[in-house]
Amino acid sequence: MKNFKILTIFAILYSTFIFAQNTNNSGSFLIGKSSMGAKPTGSQYFNDAFTPANIKDKGITMIKYNAYLDQIELKGATDQITVLDVEEGVLIPTSDRRNTYEFISYVTDENENVKGYLNLISNTPNVKIYSRLRVFLQPETDTKSGYEAYKPPMYKKATTRYFIKVKENQTVQFNKKKDLAKLFSGKEKEVSDFISKNKISLSDDEDLQKLGEYLNTL
Predict the structure, then answer these.
(1) CA–CA separation, 189 and 196 (whole Å)
(2) DSSP single-letter state for residue 70
């Protein structure tokens, strides 16, 4: 009987210890949350509101760019949402002049050939400069121990990338001024000097418009 009592006391103490190991500082019990049905937080859009835009053969239409799915959504008169049919090379300017979308082929700095929407920043006869606005889905962070907080999947804005098309050449990504300079054979120094002297930021839309106008003269 004495041994039985000792075993019973040991079992109670062990259970108490295990419970303590699985509680947080507030005393609530932590359980690994299942990923089944976890709804992502965040947004698939850079701008959640629909904006008027002038679309070929459709006139002024309310649109919203889905930066996760890389597609343009349209809102009809009855609030029905549809997806715009892709037509390469057609400009879709928003009425607020903040964005002009164009579905084109382009090459990333990983030498990957892609087709998708880019945002036209500078549009001159010889040079076009674009930004790529994308959203990605960050996976959930599962609970691996009783001390880790569960985090659901989350839509996050990707780093904006920039692209340039010179005359009839391919649209290619650029990251540094040397990437741009090498596209203008024999005038690399002039391009680099212009960027440096004018303190051109290669991630600022207004600066890129100024740069596009200059590069158009070369």
Answers:
(1) 10
(2) T
pTM for this one?
0.80
- Angle, nearest 10°, between helix axes 188-197 and 205-215? 150
Indicate the domain borders of the chain: 40-215
The residues, any chain, with a CB within 8 Å of residue 86's CB and separated by 6 or more, are 71, 103
What is the DSSP secondary-structure string of 148-164? SPPB--EEEEPPPEEEE
Model confidence over 142-176: pLDDT tens digits? 766 566 677 889 999 999 999 999 999 999 999 99
pLDDT digits 0-9 by tens, 18-33: 434 443 433 333 334 4
Q: CA 195 to CA 216: how far, in whole Å?
A: 14
Pairwise CA distance, residues 140 & 174, whole Å: 32
Contact assessment for residue 68 and residue 136, using Cβ atoms and an 8 Å cutoff: yes
Q: How far apart are CA 210 and CA 217, in angstroms?
A: 12
Pair of tokens at residue 137:
């889905």
